Amino acid sequence: MNLRCAVLDDYQGVALTSADWGPLDGRVDVRVLREHLTDRDALVAALEDCEIVVVMRERTPMDAGLLARLPRLRLLVTSGMRNASIDLAAAARHGVTVCGTTSNAEPPVELTWALILGLARHVRAEAQALRDGGPWQSTVGMDLAGRTLGLVGLGRIGGRVARVALAFGMDVLAWSPNLTEERAAEHGVRLARTKDELLERADIVSLHMVLSERTRGLIGERDLRAMRPSAYLVNTSRAGLVDGEALVRALREGWIAGAGLDVFDTEPLPYDDPLRSLPNVLALPHLGYVTEANYARFYGGAVEDIEAYLAGSPIRLLG
Predict the structure, then answer these.
(1) C-alpha 202 chain-centroid distance
(2) Is the pLDDT of residue 224 over 90?
């Protein structure tokens, strides 16, 4: 009897066309769930007969309680090599092997710049005015050349964002708890000695940190108040880096000029969330990693992980 595999949260219905699943024919029956299941009982009912589950990023958390209700589960595959919503210790206790996939750094870099440019040139407001027959040229854009971009984090993604900023003629400051002057210089940027220095000097602040207990709430009320009233905050990393309630207040009360957001505490974002309607927010439905090449990496890697597991030699193990 074939093993059963469920691919979760395939919103666009592209999981089976983004990779060749043929190598699993005759061994694994694959089914795709396009709708996000928030009800825990419904999720268990959809997965309880599966030995293999493929998850896309943190769309569906695989916590200890859920894993305990899936006794048949033996292999859990996640896109990417890091997924904070998987309880790796619980998976180990239940005998579940957890594997990841490779990913591309370019897609979130490109989306970060889509948000920065959209904010700087008021693309949302101007595009809507044009569609609605509103005023012709109602805003004045921010010049990026000569402005200061503040990068919180200068790793694989932040470093690439910096290179684009330099091409635009921007001054780039970077800060993270362990960032050194030498490392910053390698990217052609200047080190901000403190987080406060970066926030106070930057015209645009872009976050590129891994979410952990140490970085959760890294940008709070005090930090948002330290930013310039004309400055923008961009977050394409993880929502938990920012105090969500403080951010909404900052946007409503004008502590900052606006925000470009691709990540949220709850996804999909609830319909009544103020981030959907605040006029100074440019928000996207977590598209940072959603590209053809990245999906080919993710789902192609999932097939490789399953093949390796069936051969008795799991690859890209997590935990």
Answers:
(1) 22
(2) yes
Asked if 160 contacts 142 with a C-beta cutoff of 8 angstroms, the reply is no
pTM of the entire structure? 0.93
Q: What is the pLDDT of residue 1?
A: 86
Distance, first Cα to last Cα, the chain: 30
Dihedral over alpha carbons 12, 91, 83, 264 (to 10 degrees) = 70
Per-residue pLDDT at 26 exceeds 90: yes
CB distance 74 to 52 below 8 Å: yes
> What is the pLDDT, as a whole number, of residue 136?
97
> What is the predicted pLDDT for the residue at 189?
98
Helix (H) or strand (E) holding 185: helix 181-186
Grade residue 11 by pLDDT with cuts at 50, 70 and 90.
very high
Dump the DSSP string for 267-317. SSPPTT-GGGT-TTEEE-SS-TT-SHHHHHHHHHHHHHHHHHHHTT---SB
Mean pLDDT of 54-62: 94
Q: What is the amino acid identity at position 115?
A: L
In contact, 268 and 243? CB cutoff 8 Å = no
82-86 LR contacts (CB < 8 Å, sep 24+): 82/210, 82/318, 83/55, 83/57, 83/58, 83/318, 84/58, 84/211, 84/212, 84/238, 85/58, 85/60, 85/61, 86/55, 86/61, 86/62, 86/318
- As a whole number of angstroms, the distance between CA 309 and CA 303 comes to 10
> Is the CB of residue 283 less than 8 Å from the CB of residue 262?
yes
Count of residues making up the chain:
319
Residues that are catalytic? 238, 267, 286
